[in-house]
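U., I forgot to send this yesterday:
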Amino acid sequence: VECRTWNQLGLGLKWRTQAVGGHISDSAVADFNNDGKPELVYAVVSKTAPVVGQERSYIVAQSVEKAPQAGETAAP
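Result:
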């Protein structure tokens, strides 16, 4: 997952998550741990089993920076 921002010439990379094995089936930005700050939350399916075997999936929650509002400056 990547977050990009417009920098007057194109989309510049702001941050990127680590690579995950499998595919991301759903995502949201929400206050996952009730600390008042937004987190990127996504579900990863790492193994599928169409006939026999076990499926594997997991949830990832990662802190994200809130974009500065008009008149604010970004924290260093």
